[in-house]
Structures are given as structure tokens and as C-alpha cells.
Amino acid sequence: MTIEDAPEEWRVTASRTPFRGNKTSVRTDDVVMPDGAVVSRDYQVHPGSVAILALDDDGRVVVLRQYRHPVRQKLWEIPAGLLDIPGENPLHAAQRELYEEAYVKAGDWRVLTDVYPSPGGSDEAVRIFLARDLSEAGGARFEVAEEEADMELARVELADLVRGVIRGELHNMCLAAGVLALAAVLAGDGIEALRPAEAPWPARPFTA
């Protein structure tokens, strides 16, 4: 048996958008179930995101601590951002986010993993990159505001982050998926087995 997700689309008899926000919206679809019943499904319509697990030469991961109002916590995270420019190349977006949030650039980029953070309630897709060969970015720093105004930056050993996830001390999905995926890669086939940075991403097709 091949264990692999596969595209499928059940028939939608009606669709409406009861809420439109600045970056996302809520859609209600009437979906035909396998038994013929029609049920309503509400979900967030999301442009997609990129996240970056930036690993330095000492085996430390670049992390940041930021307030997240919906959960009323300051969470340790990896740099990430929205794909809010239609058709934008996710690698270019990731490079921009790494610079803006961590003031770092990377010489080596690969796809670490692709995830749907909450497929029962959102169509958000996230591509998590592995970035290596880090160096400090030159030029002016990006001007931060709002939640990012008091953002903290740190570099933490990969093993410490893995332990934090397992112990329930670290909760951000991108951080958890990224550090666990990297730990599995390092214990298995190695970084050379990862997909190239420009690998196709059917969930969010992009231009070169």
C-alpha cells in the first residue's frame, strides 16, 4: 500500500463568503457527502504561508518569540510569513521573511516539508524550508511594528527544541513540524535527500 495524500474534490452545490478580512476570509460550502446528504462546511480561506528553519554552522536554529493574541501566549517560533502576493515564488517569500524577521540570509535552501496546519477548518498550506550557510544581512534593518515590535531572537540547539516539543513546552506548529522533520532527516537519509528549494508545490502553484 502506498501511503500518500491524493487530490479529491466532492461536489459543492452552493458556496458563500459570510466574512472577508484583510488577509483571509471565511467560506461556507454545501458539500454532497458519500451517502447523498448535503452538509454545510465552514472554513478559513487562506493565501498560504512559508516558514524557515534556519540552521547555523553550530547546529543551532534561529528562533523568535512573539505574542499571539488568539492563544494569549508568547510563542517561540521559526521565521514565517504569508504568501500574500498572488503567484509569488515561495522561495523568494521565504528569503524575504528570513531577512525581515531575523536579519539573516542563507546560501543553501531546501524544502524540509509541506503541511496543512488545520485541514478540517482552513485551506492554509505551509511550505517549511531548511536554510543553511547563514550570514548576517547587510543594509538597513526592516522596520518592525505591532506584535513584532518586542520580538525576541535567539539561536537554540536543535536537540533542545525537539525536547521542548515532546515535553509540551513549545507549541508553534511550524517550529514543531520543522524541528521534528529535521531531526528525522538527520537520523535517516540526510539533508541531501531533501527536495530542492524550487520543488513543485501543488497546494500553492507558483511562477518561477
From TrEMBL:
Keywords, ordered alphabetically: Hydrolase
SUPFAM superfamilies: Nudix (SSF55811)
Biological process annotations from GO: nucleoside phosphate metabolic process; ribose phosphate metabolic process
Cited InterPro entries: NUDIX_hydrolase-like_dom_sf (IPR015797), NUDIX_hydrolase_dom (IPR000086)
Domain called Nudix hydrolase: residue spans: 44-178
Domain of life from the UniProt record: Bacteria
PROSITE patterns for this protein: NUDIX (PS51462)
Any one Gene Ontology molecular-function term assigned to this protein's record: hydrolase activity
Alphabetized Pfam families for the sequence: NUDIX
GO cellular component term of the entry, any: cytosol
PANTHER family xref list: ADP-RIBOSE PYROPHOSPHATASE (PTHR11839:SF31), UDP/ADP-SUGAR PYROPHOSPHATASE (PTHR11839)
Descriptive protein name: NUDIX hydrolase
Species of the source: Streptomyces liangshanensis
